[in-house]
Design brief:
Order of helices and strands: HHEEHEEHEEE
Largest sheet: 7 strands, antiparallel
Protein name: 26S proteasome non-ATPase regulatory subunit 9
Keywords: Chaperone
GO cellular component, one term: nucleus
Strand content: 15-25%
Organism: Trichobilharzia regenti (Nasal bird schistosome)
Family: Belongs to the proteasome subunit p27 family.
Shape: globular
């Protein structure tokens, strides 16, 4: 679905879009905090949410800060719940924007494209004020994967993956952290630049699969 600059008097669109933007910002804050908490676990023996905190004899492990890990894991679980709720509200807001676009083809939103069902999960933003900086390049896409279904292409440049951007990216571990902390069935927002259209950013929602399945893409730093 494509949004374009349009009539500033369309109050209904403004309300819906404002709520959507607020939810996107809240989602980014949660993901940022989840990344910080995940780093705490990583620094304490790289434990995960289900890693045992007692030794074989049933005593608290002496090689990690058990109390800190318990608090951190509880915070992660709470934030994961909040993240899931935010994603549900985002989905509702996106559907409302889609419905507005359908009912008002000449209003603030242009009519949704009928090329693919994937288009409903893409937002094309054109801005002359901000040119986002890519920090990753997609060099592999697995056949029949979530990435392929989202219409991602080899050569696409990544400007955002969850809460990670060029400003806070340090290594591919950041990407793994976002994926790891996103609950199965929830979406990861990914923004890309395709080809030479540096002023056009495509925003794609990737649904994290259940089990051990991956998104089906491989990225390298640029």
């Amino acid at each position: 679905m494509v949004y374009s600059a349009a009539d500033p008097n369309t109050a209904k669109y403004d309300v819906i879009k404002s709520r959507y933007d607020t939810l996107v910002n809240e989602k980014a804050k949660i993901e940022k905090r989840l990344a910080e908490l995940s780093e705490i676990l990583h620094q304490n023996g790289d434990v995960e949410l289900d890693t045992p905190l007692v030794d074989d004899e049933g005593f608290p492990r002496s090689d990690i800060d058990v109390a800190l890990i318990r608090i951190t894991r509880n915070n992660i679980r709470c934030l994961n719940t909040d993240h899931k709720q935010i994603m549900l509200e985002l989905e509702t807001a996106l559907h409302e924007l889609h419905e507005y676009a359908r009912q008002n083809p000449s209003g603030k939103c242009s009519h949704p494209s009928k090329q693919d069902s994937n288009e409903d999960r893409q937002i094309e933003e054109k801005s002359s004020e901000v040119i986002k900086t890519p920090f990753l390049r997609i060099d592999q896409i697995a056949p029949n994967s979530i990435a392929e279904q989202a219409d991602l292409k080899i050569g696409d440049l990544v400007v955002q993956f969850g809460s990670v951007t060029a400003k806070n990216f340090s290594s591919l571990q950041d990407i793994s952290t976002v994926f790891k902390n996103t609950p199965p069935g929830s979406c990861i927002q990914m923004s890309i630049i395709r080809g030479n259209n540096v002023n056009t950013v495509l925003s794609v929602s990737l649904l994290k699969p259940t089990g051990n399945a991956s998104l089906g893409l491989h990225v390298v730093p640029v």
